[in-house]
Amino acid sequence: MRPIVEMLDVSCIYEDLSVLHGVNLNLYAGQFAGIVGPTGSGKTTLLKTILGMVRPAKGRIAINDGDRPVNGRRPGFIGYVPQLEAVELSFPVTVEQVIMMGRYGVMGWLPWPGRQDRKKVADLLEQLRIGECAGRHIHELSGGQLQRVFLARALIGEPRLLLLDEPTSGVDVNTQHDILHLLGELNHKGMTILLATHDLNSVAAHLPWIICFQRKVIAQGPPDKVFTPEILRLTYNAEMLVIREGRFMLMTHATPLLHETHGHGRPPEKD
After folding, report:
1. Quick one: CA dihedral 222, 77, 80, 183, positive or negative?
2. Are 18 and 11 in contact (CB under 8 A)?
3. Which of 57, 214, 247, 269 keeps 20 to 30 A from 25, CA to CA?
């Protein structure tokens, strides 16, 4: 099967720091995959590189939409849900207005919303179980409601590929499972989904494919194949415990490595 996103030897550099290093990764239609890795491992940069928001210093990214390379503009069939920390919640905008923002630039949409547009927003809000929030301002919402609002904004353009950055961050455990269950439903309807997260245990319970990432792909595969102490140690530079009970898995930190690196993978300086 031909990949819908193909990354070949992709590297990205911020100033003198290599953030992505020789990334080779394919995404296929119908996948539901999660990228896991520590803070600073390049997960967000990877997503933004696929979106065209970050230009690689080396390598090639091809999108299976005429096999064209990413050229700095987000391909129209990709939806994106950013981290909530990047959202300015004090901006005076309603839920409906936020979702409408996702329609701009999509082929066939007029520059002003009509009755059908508002109906589509209402249908999305009902599908995501926040139908009562349409007229509320975003600063009035809970973390789980906000995640659903920005998911709706990404879905309004009917994307074939959905990228999400930490969609379960800052919400309680029940809301985490609700959001991942919603994404699973979208995937079963045919949407390809790639999400970045630090939450190993949630993705182990919900996602069929995991990509362990530390500036490059360390390993990928089903959770029971890649969530091993050896692979997690390479990914997190720390000893990890993996507890298995039937089909359930639990990952947790053990003691850190003696030569743990500090700040972007660099070793600590000597006095």
Report:
1. negative
2. yes
3. 247
Residues paired with residue 25 on neighbouring β-strands, in sequence order: 7
Find tokens 């927003």 and name the residue.
Answer: 121
Per the DSSP assignment, residues forming a β-bridge with 60 are 8
40-64 confidence digits (pLDDT tens)? 999 999 999 998 888 899 998 888 7
Whether 228 has a pLDDT exceeding 80, the answer reads yes
Token duo for residue 55: 């230009």
How far apart CA 37 and CA 44 sit, in angstroms, is 11
Entry field: residues in the chain: 271
Environment class of 248 (CB within 10 Å of its CB; exposed 0-12, middle 13-18, buried 19+): exposed
- Read off the tokens for 74: 């987000």
pLDDT in tens, 257-267: 444 444 444 44
Per-residue tokens: 176 = 């985490």
Provide the Cα torsion 34, 175, 164, 212; round to 10°. -20
